[in-house]
Amino acid sequence: MGGWPSVVNRLAPRDKKNAKGTTMTVRTILAGLALAVLALPATAQSIAGKWNGNVDSPQGPFLLTFSFMVESGELTGSMSNDFMGEIPISDGMIDGNAVSFRMSFEGGPGGSMTVAFSGELEGDELTLTPELEGDVPPGGGGPQPMTLTRAD
Question: How many separate domains does the chain show?
Fold first, then answer.
């Protein structure tokens, strides 16, 4: 077929006086486009790794560490802290910068609880909004977003 040189030659004008300058301009544009396309995977944001955050409580900040992994487009991982240990996430999904997953806890006020998290990744910050599913215990207030920062 001829590849990039034949494309450049077809785009260049037939006028010999301007052919060299236009060919260089077209080559420069095509090279820039090729580099931009190749650089996309390298600059794409990734949620993989450890993230730290906290939730305010009457006893002070409640520290949380999230560990996320992405494999074949599926989000997996866990949340941990000194009080509750490590809790795995389920139903993890990533769609561009949008993130969602669930966590189930045993021993809540009404037995087991499931919390659905949704959020958005912006560089080294991940904003998550947790929302209780099912029978919500009274007195909890509405969903409160939290911001996590990349730890590694």
Answer: 2
